[in-house]
Automatic annotation (TrEMBL):
Record-annotated N-acetyltransferase domain positions: 17-186
GO molecular function, a single term: acyltransferase activity, transferring groups other than amino-acyl groups
Protein name: GNAT family N-acetyltransferase
Keyword Transferase: yes
Keywords: Transferase
Domain of life: Bacteria
Cross-referenced InterPro entries: Acyl_CoA_acyltransferase, GNAT_dom
Amino acid sequence: MTPTAPHQLITRAYDTAGARAIQDELFALYAEIYADHLSDPFYSVERFADRFAGHSNRSGFRLVTGSIGGALVGYAYGGPLGRTTRWWDGLRDDVPADALVEDGTRTFALNEIMVQESWRRRGIARSLHDTLLGGRPELRATLLVDPDNDPARNAYLSWGWRTLGHLQPFPDAPVYEALVIDLPLPEAAAS
Ligand SMILES: CC(C)(COP(=O)(O)OP(=O)(O)OC[C@H]1O[C@@H](n2cnc3c(N)ncnc32)[C@H](O)[C@@H]1OP(=O)(O)O)[C@@H](O)C(=O)NCCC(=O)NCCS
């Protein structure tokens, strides 16, 4: 396949209402990308839809989609952690207590980022990531990545994310690595 010229990718940002208006498209792309995992209840489309409903309910939620030729090829979304968030509850490592303090404005949680398989390794995830995090008012961002997910983990580490510890968000969820990055993104990452 011919490599994508960056200008072919159209990114677009949505708030909660806008994201929910296109949620069927989002779920369809999720089902395609996670097709090999859908039999695991945690990865089912129903559970994904439940998580999306919760994530998109947060004040400050943002979705960024990437489209090529009018077709959705990827998206990323997240929102700020609230003062009483349970995000850090499943952390298994000792970290300085002040690393886990949330006041509702400190940390943006990147909940999902995905790109259709046939469009990978063209910098699309990077564009979605930079567009979503660019201009955020929070001081830092966090995300959870499966330590065996080499493509995603390599991407995040190369973009400047660092490991805070290991975290299991729900009893039937995998044990993830919790990563953080300071905001605003460094100039090189934000370009
Ligand atoms: C992770 C994912 C979003 C990356 O999307 P992408 O558009 O291919 O990413 P980019 O083209 O922006 O790649 C950025 C960097 O990621 C790393 N990377 C991406 N795919 C990789 C692979 N298969 N193996 C190793 N490193 C990889 C590289 O460092 C790459 O930079 P490079 O191409 O200059 O070497 C995509 O693989 C995906 O959708 N995976 C399934 C969903 C998923 O796992 N999401 C993350 C959940 S935490």
